[in-house]
Design goal:
The protein has 687 residues and is α+β, with helices and mostly antiparallel strands. It has 21 helices and 19 strands. The strands form four sheets. Strands 12-13-14-15-16-17-18-19 form an eight-stranded antiparallel β-barrel. Strands 3-2-1-11-10-9-8 form a seven-stranded antiparallel beta sheet, sandwiched between helices.
Length: 687
Amino acid sequence: MTPHHVPTPPTGRIPRARRIAAAVALGTSLALGTGVAASAAASTPGATAAPVTATPAPPVHQPGGHTLTEDDVHAWLDGAVGAALPATGIPGAAVSVVADGRVLTTAGYGMADTGTGSTRAERVDPDRTLFRVGSVSKTATATAVMQLVEDGKIDLDADVQQYLDFDLDTPKGPVTMRNLLTHTAGFEEVIGGLIGTPGSEESLRAAVVDAPPAQVFTPGTTPAYSNYGGALAGYIAQRVSGEPFESLLQRRVFTPLGMSSSSFAQPLPEALDARLARGYLDDSGPARPTEVVHGAPAGAMSSTVTDMARFMLAQLGDVPTDQALVQPDTLASMHRPALGSDDLGTLAAGQRMDLGFFDESTPGLPASGHDGDTIVFHSAMRLFPDEHAGIFITMNGSGRTATDAIELRDAVVRGFADRYLRGDATTTDSAGGTSRMSTASARAAAADLAGTFVTSRSPATNPGALLALAGQTTVTARADGTVAVTPKPLGTTTAVYEPIGPHLWREVGGDALLATRTAGDDDGTVTTIAWGGAFTMLRAAPWQVASLVLPSLVAALAVLLVSVVGWPVTALTAIGRGRSRSRSRDRILLLSRIGQVSALVALFGWASVAVQALAFQDVSTVTLRVLQVLQLVGVLAVVPAALAAWRAVRTHRGWASVTGRVLVVAALVVVAGIAVAFHLLAPSVTY
C-alpha cells in the first residue's frame, strides 16, 4: 500500500528513504536540538529562501527502439535486475512481461530464502515463489468491487453508509465508492497498526470499525492516499456479496484467471505459505517475521509473477471472453481518470486516479498501474493498453541503502517503456518541452507557488499531527520562472519544474507533473499541489513550518534544560547563604519546576514516538496516555512559572533571576503552543 512524507505500509508510493530521513531528522530535532540549521535551510518558505542557482540533473530516459521479443527482454532483464541484486543487497526479485495477448516471459533472480536462519537456501522461481505485493492488492480489490457494480449491488456514486453495518463518521460529507477507489474520501492518514506479526491477525470488520480515521477533507476535493479507504472498499464488497473477502477474491478474480498461487488469506494456506519468499531488509541479515497486513484488501495479497502476468492480461482485455473479469466498458472505465474538475477544480489539470489504478501516462504513452510496499517487499505493475503490454516486478528486500529497492523497480518499469514502447522521437519530445508562458507570467506563477508545504497524507486530529514537522516540501521561485521543489515527490533530491499551462507544471527534462489550486479568484497564492493522482501537498500554516517551529522548540528545550539542571545548584547556593523562602513561594517554584521536568520528559518521549511511528513500529496506548499526562502537567506549569516570574519582578530579585524566570515562562508557552497546535493532548491517540 505504499509506506511520502509520512508513509504507511503497505503503501504504494512512499520511499523508505523519506521515512528514515524524516524519522531521524524529527527525532533528532525534537530530542537533541541538533541539525536544526539544516532543517531550517531545507524548510524555509520559498519567499525567503536562498535562490537555487543550479539545475539538478533531469531524469534519464534509456535508448528506445528495441523490438519487444522474449530474447531481448531476457537479455535486458539479466542486466537491469540480475546484475543489480548483488550490488544493492536485495536478496531476490521476479519479473513478468506480457505483450500482444500472451505471457512473453517470466524470470526469477536471486534468493527467495538466503538460508541465514534455520531454513535452507532457495532460489527465486517465477512460477513457484510467492511475494507479498503490498498495495498492488488494491487493483484486485477494485476489480472485485467493479464486478459488484456490474451486478447492481454497488452504486459508485451512492453514500457507502447504506452498505455498512456501523456508522461511518463523515462530518465533511458522504463518502462514495468512487471516493474510496480514488483516495478522495477525505480521511486522515493512519500509521499505527498497519503491519503486524503472525498472531496479530484480526477480522476485516475489526480493521475498519475499530478506531477509524477522522474525515478531514471534503470528499472528492483533496487526494489523500488512504489504506483505510482501500480496506473499507473491500469490506463493502464483503458485505454486499455476503461472502468473506478472501473467498470472494478467490472465486471471482483468481480462479477465473487460473491464478492458483494467489491469495489474500492471512496466514496463507500451508501449501502456499511453504512457497512464500522470506522478507529481508538486505541480504546480510536474517529474514523478518511474515508481515500481517491489517485491513487485508488494501495490501495483503500474495502472488507469483506468473499469476500477476495473468492478471495483467485480464486488465489489458487480452483474455478469452469466458475469462474476462468485467465487461469491456467497465474495464475501460477502470483505466481512465475517474474524477473531473467538478470535484477537483484546477487539480484536474494534472494526473488523476483511475478506479483503483494510478494514471501512469507520459507524453505519447498512456499507462496505468500501481506500486506496492510493505516493510520489506516492494513491487510495481505497469500496463500500457495501446501497446497491449505490461510489466510486473517484485522484490523481497529493501537493499543496503534506503532507496535501493525503490530506485531499482522505478528504473525497470521506466526502462521497459523507454526501451520497447517509446520511439526515440517520443523519448526526446517527452524529455524536453518549453514553457508555454511568457517569462513574466512564469515568474508571477512561480512566486504564487513558492512556500512550504505539508502532505495531506498525514494524521491531523491526534498526536500523529506532530509528524507534519517531518518531510516538509519547500518550493522556491527561480529567476527564470521555474520552481525548485525540495525534496521532489518520491525522492530525496531537488527537482525543477516549469509551467506548461494554467495550474500545471512539468519537471524539466522529465515527465512528472504538478497541478495546483489557488486560494480564490482574487488571490493567486497556491494553497494545494497535487501529484501522482492520489497525493496532495497543502500550504503549511505558519505554526506548521519546521524552519520556524523547530528552532523555537530547541530554544525552549535549552532554556528548560538549563533551568532544570541549575535548580539543584540554585537550591544549594540559597542554603549556603542562609536564605529562606515563604512556603507559598516554595510551592510555586516547586510546581513550576515539576512542570518543567514534565515538559522535558514529554518532549523526549514524543521524539521517541515519532521515530518509532515513522519506522512503523507500534507504540502502546498506555505509553501515549502517560506522555499526554506529562504534557498536560507541562502546559499547566505556565501558571506557577508566570507567578514566580512576577514575584521576581515585584521583589527586585535582580536581572539574572528575572530574566531566567521570564525565559522559563516563554519556553513553557512555546511547548504548550506546540502541544495544542499538534494535538498532543487530543482525546484520540490512534495515529
